[in-house]
Design a protein that fits this description.
Blueprint: H1 4-14, E1 19-32, E2 35-47, E3 50-56, H2 69-83, E4 93-99, E5 105-108, H3 115-127, H4 146-151, H5 160-187
Parallel strand pairs: 3-4
Antiparallel strand pairs: 1-2, 2-3, 4-5
């Protein structure tokens, strides 16, 4: 049995322009020596004008602008990957569509040309002998690596060898932290629970 929200979601998604030609499209492209960019497009649609890259998000839409920076960047990267894929190389990319949990599609123009410059910056950072300074910003909230930045020195400067040794250094600390959290949780019962690592 479908919930009313599922039915509404399907109806609204069906109303998007273009015919669905594929879902969960995996793409990969070599962007340097032993360096690849890969991703998975949620939905790929087709119109006479070209492809539409659709990204479904489970988050609320941003209040202060049309789309989040990282969502635009994701569509840009997918367009860049499609340009390098023989299956899509000679077919234009008409647009991107971001569908947040309010189910109102937001159409955007992909900018794949900006991805090589971003990749060059990333490669340069990876080639450094030490980490650069950490400059926290609002995008850190959505970053998978944000917890790591909490334990690294803000001024940067760790060498590659030190970074490789981090798991050995952090494991005992994380174990102690989880034990401390566990004791706090059992010692003071509350309506909210803490989650340890």
């Amino acid at each position: 049995m479908h919930t009313m929200l599922d039915l509404l979601s399907r109806a609204l998604k069906a109303d998007l322009s273009g015919r669905v030609v594929a879902t969960e499209v995996r793409l990969s492209r070599e962007v340097g020596e032993e360096l690849y960019l890969s991703g998975k497009i949620d939905v790929l649609r087709w119109t006479r004008e070209g492809y539409i890259i659709q990204e479904d998000k489970s988050s609320n839409p941003p209040k202060d602008r049309r789309v989040r920076h990282e969502d635009q960047l994701q569509v840009d990267a997918y367009a860049f990957l499609m340009e390098g894929d023989e299956r899509y190389k000679n077919i234009p990319i008409k647009s991107g569509v971001i569908l947040y949990n309010d189910l109102r599609p937001i159409e955007i123009k992909p900018e794949p040309a900006r991805i090589p410059k971003i990749l060059e910056k990333m490669k340069a950072t990876l080639e450094l002998d030490s980490l650069p300074e950490i400059k926290p910003n609002t995008r850190c909230l959505y970053c998978y690596y944000s917890p790591l930045c909490q334990v690294l020195p803000k001024e940067g400067g760790l060498s590659a060898r030190q970074i490789h040794e981090l798991p050995q250094f952090l494991e005992p600390l994380l174990f102690l932290w989880s034990k401390t959290t566990e004791q706090e949780t059992t010692a003071t019962p509350t309506s909210t629970s803490k989650i340890g690592i």
